[in-house]
Request: fold
Amino acid sequence: MSNYNAIKLTPMLNSHDMAATLKFYTEILNFTCVAKLDDLSWFALSKNQIEIMFSTPNEHRPFPKSIMSGSFYIYTNEVAELWESLKDVCEICYPLEDFEYGMREFAIYDNNGYLLQFGKEL
Reply:
């Protein structure tokens, strides 16, 4: 395998309700939509150093439902404030907790069922 210079990683996720996904990420999590196709079959979001893309299923990505075996872990310096702003408007996986591995964190599900964890070092 040849050596190459990887520049960055930007997740590309499927959504079966692109309008609801765009609304969730821009209105609830305050991401900015930086690019999108007119038919809303693809868009890119950004917040600080985080970038994520969503697309509808197609012949190259024919997933019948939104699936992912892992989660997205987002580091923030305002984990308690973020918890207060999201706890009543999102589906909660687990509430704000301090963990023995040195993190204060909580987790929510987005409108597609993807797990988003937010944490700060203690």
User: Anything to note?
Assistant: The beta strands are 12-14, 32-36, 42-47, 50-55, 72-75, 91-98, 103-109, 115-121. The longest helix spans residues 18-28. The chain has two helices and eight strands. The domain at 8-58 is CATH 3.10.180.10 (2,3-Dihydroxybiphenyl 1,2-Dioxygenase; domain 1).
